[in-house]
Specification:
Layout (H helix, E strand, L loop, with lengths): L2 H6 L15 H7 L3 H24 L9 H23 L1 H7 L10 H11 L4 H31 L1 E2 L2 E2 L14 H22 L14 H4 L2
Antiparallel strand pairs: 1-2
Helix pairs in contact: 3-4, 3-6, 3-7, 4-5, 4-6, 6-7
């Protein structure tokens, strides 16, 4: 896989939320507002990038038997730094994200990329993987939050949208609405992926040396 393909695979082909179905809890929880979604996406991407780089650097040093606890300690360190920065410079976002900001520590996307990719590849490739996966996660959050905020609240990034403000679909801001949009986006990505995949050739018995023996 080329480095460019490694960078963009997280957007659609291996989207962490819509294809790998990871990070579902923060995806459903913070996507009622586009601002919160962008904040969560950037925070997770920074943690993912930092942890991937450090784990890739230390992959030959960390003992195999304790690699998961070591990964969690490293990830927790980056999450703490991000949490402190957000609290200092974007306190309203810090309050809006609430418990889901420190819970980035147990986000399956970050731990999964550490175990499946950073642990086996070099620093540059691991960094590109982190950026791609972070971009895919952030883009998914933005799309989902935009749909829910625009049609559920009649606003976008807090700005009122004429007519929709007074004719919104309130259920989209609730948990059932989140699951509905989540399911629709997964179905859309699956449809796109199937169109891009090459058609499989139909198998037949022509040219098979055992065709006469099997009777087909």
């Amino acid at each position: 896989m080329s480095r460019f393909a490694n960078l963009i695979k997280g957007v659609v082909k291996e989207n962490p939320v819509l294809v790998l179905v990871l990070g579902t809890c923060p995806t459903l929880a913070v996507t009622t507002q586009a601002t919160n979604a962008i904040g969560m996406g950037i925070a997770a991407t920074v943690v993912l990038l930092g942890s991937n780089i450090v784990i890739s650097l230390l992959r030959n040093v960390i003992p195999d038997k304790v690699r998961i606890p070591c990964y969690i300690v490293l990830i927790a360190g980056f999450v703490t730094l991000v949490q402190m920065v957000v609290e200092a410079f974007a306190y309203s976002l810090y309050q809006a994200l609430g418990i889901f900001l420190p819970l980035i520590v147990v986000n399956c996307i970050i731990l999964g990329r550490a175990e499946m990719y950073a642990n086996k590849n070099g620093v540059l490739d691991s960094a590109l993987d982190a950026i791609g996966m972070g971009a895919g996660f952030t883009l998914t959050l933005l799309v989902m939050s935009s749909i829910r905020e625009i049609f559920g609240n009649g606003t976008w990034f807090g700005m009122s949208i004429p007519w929709l403000k007074d004719n919104n679909i309130t259920i989209l801001t609730m948990a059932p609405g989140g699951f509905i949009i989540f399911g629709c986006l997964i179905a859309l990505v699956n449809k796109i992926s199937k169109k891009r995949s090459p058609n499989k050739k139909e198998s037949n018995c022509e040219g098979c040396p055992s065709a006469s023996a099997c009777g087909k």
